[in-house]
Amino acid sequence: MPSEPTILAFDTSAAHCAAALLRGGEIAVSKAESMTRGQAERLMPLLEEVLAEADCNWQDLDAIGVGVGPGNFTGIRISVSAARGLALGLAVPAVGVSGFEALADLAPDGEIPVIVAPRDQVYVQLPGSSPQLKSRDEAESLGPLFNCSEPASQASAIARIAAQRWATVQEPPAPLYIRPADAAPSRDVPPVLLDG
Question: Where are the domains of the chain?
């Protein structure tokens, strides 16, 4: 195993599609695009662009890094399923990295990493505690907050963290959900099934 792995990392847990390639201990390429929908269609072409720009191909990868949330339910499912599929197809490990871990890698000392949630709320995880959903006011009472507004930087942080863990990863990545989905069951009456 190389001491400095080549890691392709990506994240679609918010209104963006972001990717970064770490090679030789440095971020070779990072890209991000803002989008409220369309991540499923854009993710694979974006990954191809990142690889091409770094003059790298799929077989050069030692591992996949992926942001597992919390955040947008559909976006998280897109990234995690893509990472698991790529890892299986390439026979490399996929490393899940939470948004809190990625933000902690970027946050200035003394600032608390938070992830924006709907309805003027934020996801927060204090050291030694479980992730929580809090109102922005509640979170601000804990101290200065840090939220990354640069998805390419977050994808780069995911790549760096995945590079530290890839050789010992045991389980495939899984989504990190803090709150239930906003989607409600259909109110339509299901059709009557006739026995034949």
Answer: 7-99+150-168
